Amino acid sequence: MTRADAHIHLFAGGYPGRYGRSPAGTDELAAYEDIRRVHGIDQALVIGYEGGAEFVGNNDHLATLAGRHAWIRPVAYVPPTGPATLDDLHLRREQGFVGLSAYLPGPVEAAAVSAWSPGSIDQLNRDAAILSLNATPAATAVLAGALAALDGCTVLFSHLGLPGPQATPPTPAEAAELLEPLLALAGLPHVGVKVSGLYAISQPAHAYPHTAAVPFLDLLLDRFGPTRLYWGSDFAPSLDVVSFAQTLDVAALDRLTQSERDAVFGGNLQRILPS
Fold first, then answer.
1. If we measure between CA atoms, which residue out of 148, 75, 159, 138 comes closest to residue 116?
2. Which of 2, 16, 208, 241 has the most CB atoms in a 10 Å sphere around its CB?
3. Which residue, among 252, 111, 245, has the nearest Cα to 169 in the 3D structure?
4. What's the pTM?
């Protein structure tokens, strides 16, 4: 099976992990190249992030990498207020970016997405851009109108919609209540969810196999279906708490058919990436 990874990071100085250095080693690109070879990963959606002073310049770093490696399909970080100008959008497209990434920790940041310029929204729709969102349920609750206008794009919510760390698996009703804002978006056919960052739903984070995530994933499978779920490793941050092989071992997906598993672990992402 050829895989495609819907959520990785690559930083010029390495991700400053739990121990003050990247858990992938001194050369994250070389480490991921080895991972690609061993696990048969054809392409990766590389998530731009410049939300802290130590990450400034990540977009330009990814542009350089994308020019050298065809498997790198980056999305450019933008603040919640969106692209600065249409010229900036055009530049990023020319640099090989396939869309944008935004981090929305709360309703204030999410509300800013509704104020993105009509020109930017039109251009993103024409480009069939991928929009990767790290959005909490509180943020997601105010996104419906903005996302409905981005119907030419594919919108991907990272880390099962960030329901928060759980010490024990919630009941189906409790999981549904926590994820209600995301589940309410299932009627938008261009919205999908990444099966990524399961450690962020576990307390402690290293509690593999992350059984606390299972009720959320069951709900997402039922509401969105396997054609709108996208596996992502969250390299390199995930390596602080699990191995790469463990990011691929998602027991809750065992009930899927082989063709459905192939879709989640690569086919869905390959379908939406521009050729």
1. 148
2. 241
3. 252
4. 0.97
